[in-house]
TrEMBL record, chains A, B, C, D, E, F:
Exoribonuclease phosphorolytic domain: residues covered: 12-140, 159-226
The protein's name: Ribonuclease PH
Keyword flag Nucleotidyltransferase: yes
Gene Ontology biological process terms in this record: rRNA 3'-end processing; rRNA catabolic process; tRNA processing
Family: Belongs to the RNase PH family.
GO molecular function, one term: 3'-5'-RNA exonuclease activity
Length: 241, 241, 241, 241, 241, 241
């Protein structure tokens, strides 16, 4: 029995609300149960120095947590004077995941930055960030298209991308760990997949004992199911009133 | 005529929603027009080293802005590796303003930190932070009282505190500048006052030409009116559904 | 009775000595009682990047304290690896105050930096810095005029600017707090005014109980008197032997 | 055909030399082809603050690259003033991988740090670091046992751990990518497994197009073969003359 | 002919004024021609952690330059966020030089920090700092003796210490280089010696061509003469009016 | 009797192996007894900004120590976030010493950086770095000559440069201190000399009592002997198998 009473293959209630920022070119507030992440896309007419002259754009991500997003208040990274290794690892993952479905040539010499800021955390913030970030990115690209910056028939996004975690909890493979489950799980794996089911990124970590190939295969099957549901929800997301 | 069509002595529509965080001991989302600030109070059973052994507590504040809270994306302070002078100035102001109405002895040897994070900015973020922070602080203290950490009849908060900005726009003193007005104002003053009308902090700055004593008196009168309305609203704030 | 035996409206003995640096384009050593600040103006033929192409110059300030300027030695900021929030707040105030009386177009595309370094502190270092900085700035501009960089009849400085603190000590409003008084004062306000009496900046803070409008008006009256005396002294300042 | 002329399931020539440091409690120089990593174990009689009073020890890792370990010289991280996100990600991975096979209670209240410094890089530095680090860690524990710090029959290491990368190169799954192959590979996966074949960590990344479940299964099979060879070599490693 | 018209063995006019700080336990303003350094001794009843329990004290130094001490304004180190290599090298040298004549056991478990801040620079700031620092240190120790912290007959300072630079200018060995000479000199050597003529520190650097043993011997002879004069002046230094 | 049983004028066994890096333009692994330093020369087609347009190149050095190069593990500088004063002092010394024998005009507008990384330390790491760095630098220049970047008859290196330490141990001047001797020595001096015997840099420090001119002369005589041997060995260094 999961603490959340969910079935092993049942993910949390997920909502995605678009257009939640007055200023941004694209935005999405994603809630996966009690995990709430604000994903904001910003378009800039400049690219990183190392990309100049290549007729390509860039998509990148930054990640942050409000200090009291968690049960105990954590030190504000701006005050600590640096981003933690965990923060950097996560924002690199979000950026790579998004770029896997972007045609950077089609984007032109521009950069889109997706800021994923966790307002409240209850496990799975990195996977929620990826899922919500794609919605914000998609809206940013449509914003550009509406202004003629991208031609009507140019496909910048090659596919959708979404992510979810799975783990082995009390010996049973389960989908979409919340914080309570995650703290106790023997294994924690994050899966990033496309709308068509291709694998973009896999991160599996044995927290306690090593896991077997068979266990890993069961986790991947759960992830496929969950991500299949998420990509449907991405397309149904509505703007804020 | 103000760009916002408001009368000179009319502040923006303000809403304050309490209890917006699953984890925090007190919280308030304040919206002053399009300026939205999340104010979160965190209680910690520790005090700054320089306060040890004095049988007193401490109340402090931290301030941050999401990178795209503004019209153009700003660099994330955690990535820049330091908080700007502006950020430090604002969080020092919020902390001083709150402490002016707190009986630190009555608090006991504990620290309450109020994190004020700007989700969306349209002028007046520092004054909105102070007004919302008091609501979060008050809820944190009632949370402690409910758990017997503070006696039923102990008054930790001596008064309310709220803040608003005023300025001279096109030659006319006006209340509660939004970003468009602020960019053009000749003078920008922030007033922090208590529920009983005492002055806690005044910061007046001539952006262009110096201002006169008489002009300053008119700004203060506007501020008194606006803060009078805000302290009423603080007491009426409702928790999130 | 003030610890310094001064009358409530009596400021400390102030001396300003010009031309105290072999290298600088303008300089002033200001002594307000035991508070000694070295104000050095440096002209540079470059402007901040965000000002390029606007045919305007810039005036800015930096502030520092020698580690043992105070009663107890403080950590050297260069070794701590950053400037404190207090330091940044003060240098921003000095810069804003000076710019309030500068015609930046008349200056041309150049930057003048005023370094205010406190050699010895006894309260009121920020206001002494502003008063002394104006003298150094004025000499720097005359240095430029003497070399034809500014035309004989171009008015770069629109007015003088000076500053002083006032506070309520033992229930009485008093002028120009020294360290001993400042530590005990109920209220501490800094006033920055022009030679013609216009208000440039007001910063009033209730250290203990909030203060009333009437008390604030008395502080402002004291400040006007004190600044009136300082602007006279600025014009009488003599160069070092 | 691989640029290295190796068969798809053929890893590079690997050598591990133990006892290469005059000072350290355990050390191993691992060479995987032209990738050379110095792995040094240091025992310290102290533990991280958050672990105090739990009767457990800690094993952690740090990772660095000499500036010219790579084809182009990279900036020295000590001079840049911070470790890159990549460096932090790698050292967290090495530490987690080692801890998966350590009985921290059996270690006692001590910390072992494994420094993995890349002298020369040609792809696969993180996996080589893990494989070499286990050898250094094992020697460190035997050093402690020889001095009576660990009882003769206490098993601190529950198993061996080693790592290797696999990828899809020109459409073919291949084992142990070198730099040339890695730059061109469509997919890059790192596998960390124990001596008994349990999975400790999986990191799979699609560099270009997403990959399929079937492709991933082939990579895992290659990894099992390669790691099986590495754990044998770990036990055969000889000390320096 | 030297630009300064001095004879080869003639140092600049040197003055040392003691007791120039209201707060410090010892202080000296040393002027070597146009090089002016404020040397301030601060006594603290604490020692560095690594010295605890050894019944010894510590003497250390910090060095800084006001941004416009030099011909061109240099960036403020507190703003740059770090001390330059040059600054660190110099403050280590000053500290070592002073400790060479201090009996640290006789000092007791206390630390004296000498802050050497260059108000104006014209070459030779590090050697002037050492010479002035000894005077401040001596006064600090007498301040302690007067308060019974050091017994009347305890010798804390074993000797005096002073320093001067020499160099080869236009082929001629000369004493006490000023900035103009230093910029052109072929060789620049700094000598630190005790009152009795013992050598404490020698730093010789060939700026252009290497120098010979014979040349070096001539520089050392000049240094001995100059330092002999300085140690006499140290004892004659008078307090400020 | 020295702990190492060496005669007073006997240096440690020194070996230099060239061509130890697959990527670098020049490299040398120098072993002075148990002190091992990897010296790697990197050629870059860019120069520091302040050197632009002068038709000259630049040679610089960086220095680092692996954390466990020493008896106790030291904190990794990349993690501490800055290079220590000692590190900066040493890398400035290495750079100056090399430049003393380089014709920067003949080098052209290019920069060569010599990274000196200490793999294992037993005293004398800075002098070993200089001696080995010259070998790496020489190979880098010959690499350039072989590719026509420097003409066959252009002399870029005007001479050799090497370094060694001397000190007074138990009252006797001795050559080439190892760590054990260095910890106990009364005096520690580093000498940098050219192949022709010119003095490039002298750094003499009295660790305990001041030393006399005569003692210093004896140290210099030992250094001449040792450096004479080192410059011979530099020319005999062989590439790695």
């Amino acid at each position: 029995m999961r603490p959340s009473k969910r079935n092993p293959d049942q993910k949390r209630v997920v909502t995605m609300t678009r257009n939640v920022s007055k200023h941004a070119e694209g935005s999405c507030l994603i809630k996966c149960g009690d995990t709430h992440v604000l994903c904001i896309a910003s378009l800039e007419e400049r690219i990183p120095p190392w990309l100049r002259g290549q007729n390509r754009g860039w998509v990148t991500a930054e990640y942050g947590m409000l200090p009291r997003a968690t049960g105990d208040r954590m030190r504000r990274e701006a005050q600590a004077g640096k981003q933690s290794g965990r923060t950097q690892e996560i924002q690199r993952l979000i950026g790579r995941s998004l770029r896997a479905v972007v045609d950077l040539e089609a984007l032109g010499e521009r950069q889109i930055t997706i800021d994923c800021d966790v307002l409240q955390a209850d496990g799975g913030t990195r996977t929620a960030s990826i899922t919500g970030a794609w919605v914000a990115l998609n809206d940013c690209i449509e914003w550009m298209r509406a202004r003629g910056m991208i031609a009507a028939d140019t496909k910048v996004l090659k596919d959708q991308v979404a992510a979810i975690s799975c783990g082995i909890y009390n010996g049973t493979p389960v989908l979409d760990l919340d914080y309570l489950e995650d703290s106790d799980a023997e294994t924690d794996s994050n899966f990033v997949m496309t709308g068509k089911g291709g694998i973009v990124e896999i991160q599996g970590t044995a927290e306690g004992d090593p896991f077997s190939e068979d266990e890993f295969a069961q986790l991947m099957a759960l992830a496929k199911k969950g991500i299949g549901e998420l990509v449907t929800q991405q397309l149904e997301a509505q703007p804020q009133d």
